[in-house]
Amino acid sequence: MKYDFDKVVPRRGTNSYKWDLVKQDDVIPLWVADMDFAVAPPIQEALRKRMEHPVFGYTLVPDSYYEAVINWFGRRHNWHIEKDWILYTSGVVPAVSCAIKAFTLPGEKVLLQTPAYNCFFSSIRNQGCEVLENELVREGDTYRINFEDFERKCADEKTTVFLLCNPHNPCGRVWTKEELQRMADICRKHHVRVISDEIHCEIIMPGYHFTPFALVDQDNSVTLNSPSKNFNIAGLQIANVICKNDEWRRRIDRVINIYEVCDVNPFGVIALQAAYNECGDWIDEMNQYVWDNYQYLKRFVLDELPQVQVIRMEGTYLAWLDIMCYELSSDEATQQLLHDGRVFVSSGTLYGKKAGEGYLRLNLACPRETLKQGLVRLGRVLGQYASDDHEYGCPM
């Protein structure tokens, strides 16, 4: 590999949300979606060059920014975007809230697929809307969409928006073009607008293919994306809303300004351009490394925790583990792992009280040695609860 993803970059003591939230210095954090890999060299170099100028004031977003976005998605995903369709903002979560606010009235329903990214719930409720769940159906080591339930809930006259996660966090599904098309057809039939969060769109495992929702229905959708998760630059706070519909875009832009998330920092603007213009090979190698970490996780679980089931990870760097074999809730397991094992993972209930119960989410975007140490601790704690008479899980 050209890039060294095995290199351990010390982060504790740097005010890292991932590493410094828990004060004990012997905890291994495998929770929040934040990589432990060094940022790609072209991004580092672009930021270093910008810092040679000693003033960091308000910034204009240049044409080269839009060109970088347009060229990247055209080259990588065969998606034609025009400059006028792009609205920049400080992050995908603020963009989700702005889009919901622009498209709904208080009391209306926003449909999402659970288990779902935890901030979706608060984004919906903060706009005075009701969360409507289309619970994904567990099938072997993966999930499928319950389309009958999906259409029934889209047909509810109070449902005005479907908030899609593509690829899906935390289930790791990379939705196929056929699945996206079926969702698009149902939403259009029932006059439901689609907001597609595609923040993990570059983190795709070997053998899978990402399709932007806009390629199946660009006229009835808004896409939200960012280089933040993909290139490990979340702290630079840069994201884009991509919307073809002029009236929708005007409404979203108005909310972005009302919520005052219309200004971005100069380093985010610089980093996005370097990422999209120069770092395609870094993404490709990073995906392969995460895939290898996932294979290591599966082997470890098979050898040490055979009753645990590892859900198939098609995209993102977030593993989803079924621990229903133990007489522990997700929250109890998370607390035990933190206090007894000194390893910090996410409880599945963060992603839905019902749909996430019995699961843990693990971040695999870290050097292999960090992952190995974390898994040894996880195995030591969960191994105490193993039962010889419990039926083993599905093949991985």
Automatic annotation (TrEMBL):
Boundaries of every Aminotransferase class I/classII large domain copy: 26-377
Gene3D superfamilies: Aspartate Aminotransferase, domain 1 (3.90.1150.10), Type I PLP-dependent aspartate aminotransferase-like (Major domain) (3.40.640.10)
Keywords on record: Aminotransferase, Lyase, Pyridoxal phosphate, Transferase
EC number assigned by the record: 4.4.1.13
GO MF annotation, one: pyridoxal phosphate binding
Pfam family, one: Aminotran_1_2
CDD domains referenced in this protein's UniProt entry, alphabetically: AAT_like (cd00609)
Cofactor(s) required, per the database record: pyridoxal 5'-phosphate
Similarity comment text for this entry: Belongs to the class-II pyridoxal-phosphate-dependent aminotransferase family. MalY/PatB cystathionine beta-lyase subfamily.
UniProt-recorded name of the protein: cysteine-S-conjugate beta-lyase
Protein's organism: Hallella mizrahii
Lineage, broadest ranks: Bacteria, Pseudomonadati, Bacteroidota, Bacteroidia, Bacteroidales
